[in-house]
Amino acid sequence: MSCFKKKDILQWLGVSGILLSVLGGCAQWSSGKRTISPLYKKYTLTVTGNGWEPVKAGKEDMALWNKQSHAMMAFITSDLENKKYTLEILNNQLFIGLKGKKILSMEPVTIGNQKAMHTILTGEMDNQHVKIDSYVIRTKDHVYDLLYWSPSDSFEDVRSDFENAVKSFKLREE
Question: Minimal CA–CA distance to 139: which of 90, 89, 80, 82?
Fold first, then answer.
């Protein structure tokens, strides 16, 4: 996937209010564990695995690109503007603009002692078939979106890195 295609896919997220842009010439993270604790955010999580490169932050807390698998992870915090929004509504808003959506699974789960919605789906962005794994976590005041996506044929290549990051998600005490 060229840098142009990566940028197009990142801009798809802009449809749902998340603007990401590519950071040219990023250094690849070294192998091993990286604990992410975004400044002014209320959570931590740990990313493991090889080949992940940070991309320039926009409104997301952190975004990582895996060039070899053409996979992406993004972690996003948003203020909860309407307390009446259910997890289902918040989850559906995440995929506005995705063409040909087909939900493969959607189930409530618990992540970091918080209620969450886990969804796996396929769709099309920029004439590319992609598969997406997402978790939407709702707390009293915030929504945390944890996303992983890649071309459908390489979806499982580094998905375990994302699953491990989700399992490590913890809200910090203030």
Answer: 80
Contact 69, 151 (CB under 8 A): no
Q: Which CATH code fits 3-171? A: 3.40.1000.10
Tens digit of each residue's pLDDT (9 = 90 or more) over 67-101 = 999 999 999 998 887 778 888 888 888 888 889 99
pTM score, whole prediction: 0.80
* H or E element that contains 110: strand 99-111
Give me the residues paired with residue 133 across strands. 120, 148
Amino acid letter, residue 14? G
The owner of tokens 């998340």 is 18
CA within 13 Å, CB half, 47: 26
**Residue by residue, what is the 3-state secondary structure of 134-152?**
EEEEECCCEEEEEEEEEEH
Which residue is it, tokens 């189930």? 107
